[in-house]
Task: structure prediction
Amino acid sequence: MSGRAADEWTRSYTLAEGGEVSINARNGTVDVEAADGTTVNVRAERIAHAVNDAAAAEILPRITIKEDVGPETVALRTEPLGGIVIGVTVEVNYHVRAPRSALVRLRSVNGSINVRGLGGRVILNGSNGGVTGEDLGGGVEARWANGPVKIALGSFKADLVDIRVTNGSLRLTLPDTANANLNASATNGTIDVSALELERLGDQTARRVRGRLNAGGTPIELVVVNGNIVVDSGTSNVEPRTQNPELGGPNQAILAPNLEPRGQNAEPRTKNAEPRTKNAEPIKRP
Result:
């Protein structure tokens, strides 16, 4: 489809302290950046693809973003096109500046999620893309399928960190001072915690790690199926280790070096490929 038409949809909302920003995207990326103040600024790129530019321009007004807004909630959702549509694809890319303390809940199918500088809880759900979180300061809950997840915490509080990935890798960067109890497992993958000062607890294998960071406390739950896990610290420049080439590559020999891997990591899926598994289980609202 060579035809293309695009426009911008912009809104500004006032949100109460600690309120929630929710974006439910379909075929598009979601970028959320923290800002001072109480205003939520949204710029959405609406894009239509069709056989020619004229056909795409006719579709563009039918791309609808539903708003559900109140003093404590700003919720936006990309609506599916109504009626029978053949030979047309649409996407909506959201660019959001949200109050730093807001609870941010994001969902994307066939698109990536990027969040930066947020201090409140971040809840992520979706598939067929990638996730990047930078300089986060609250709890993180994520369910993701068919894509890599990379989260860096600039500060660490008492909020749960719970990340589960299917068919993708996971990298989590923690502050050196984080007091946490780590529980990580990888099916058809390995775990690298070599950059951490971790007091190991219980049985350890190349695919299961439990331990205490500093004084312990806040739970960190990491689960990956068909992918590797790397957990490092904010000041560490350590790259994942490659020790014994017979064990199949990086991260493998950190724990239990005599274990053989159960299988090769899943081959990455293309962005618009049909997910090999159902979309990650939605997270219930607190």
Q: What stands out?
A: The longest strand covers residues 3-14. DSSP finds one helix and 21 strands in the chain.
